[in-house]
TrEMBL record:
Location of the Expansin-like CBD domain: 77-161
PROSITE patterns xrefs: EXPANSIN_CBD, EXPANSIN_EG45
Gene Ontology, cellular component aspect: extracellular region
InterPro entries: Expan_Lol_pI (IPR007118), Expansin/allergen_DPBB_dom (IPR007112), Expansin_CBD (IPR007117), Expansin_CBD_sf (IPR036749), RlpA-like_sf (IPR036908)
Designated name of the protein: Expansin-like b1
Domain Expansin-like EG45: 1-63
A UniProt-annotated Pfam family: Expansin_C
Family according to the record: Belongs to the expansin family.
Top-level lineage group: Eukaryota
Length: 166
């Protein structure tokens, strides 16, 4: 009634916490599903709606996987970062943070969406290992970026991993 038959592609970084919500969309993404501007206003007023969806691979041809240090991070006590520009159809299902000097690693917690956290992160330059999982065939692969997070990282910093995956 309000939605376009053409469909829309959105990047989903988190899912709903309740049993009646699959995705949490921004107002802009939600409104893009509508046929017209007026229909978008009516659609937004509904709040939760049923949608048909299918998963498609993400594509960021000019970007490497990037790590943005969360604003709540505090070196050396707490580190949280979000993973940007991961393309393809695989999910990041685990992340390890390793000291580059002695390769001592810690498994990070997934806070929500693409945000990974650790209390008392290892010291020194930090290497990240990501486990990529394909939900279609069950294949899992550990990926190690070329670039490390430097020892003097701080909240708000953005680091290019030097790699991209398919």
């Amino acid at each position: 009634m309000y939605c376009s038959d053409k469909g829309v592609t959105v990047v989903v970084t988190d899912s709903g916490s309740g049993h009646n919500t699959d995705f949490i969309l921004s107002r802009r993404a939600y409104a893009k599903m509508a046929q017209t501007t007026y229909a978008a206003e009516l659609l937004l007023a509904l709040g939760v709606v049923e949608v048909e969806y299918r998963r498609v691979p993400c594509s960021y041809p000019s970007n490497n996987i990037t790590f943005k240090i969360d604003e709540n991070s505090s070196n050396p006590h707490y580190l949280a970062f979000v993973i940007w520009y991961q393309q393809g159809k695989k999910d990041v299902t685990a992340v390890q943070l390793c000291e580059t000097t002695n390769l001592s690693c810690k498994l990070l917690d997934r806070s929500y969406g693409a945000v990974w956290t650790v209390v008392t992160p290892p010291r020194g330059p930090l290497s990240i290992r990501m486990l990529l999982s394909d939900i279609d065939d069950g294949e899992e692969t550990w990926v190690v970026p070329i670039n490390d997070i430097p020892q003097n990282w701080k909240a708000g910093d953005i680091y290019d991993s030097g790699i991209q995956v398919e």
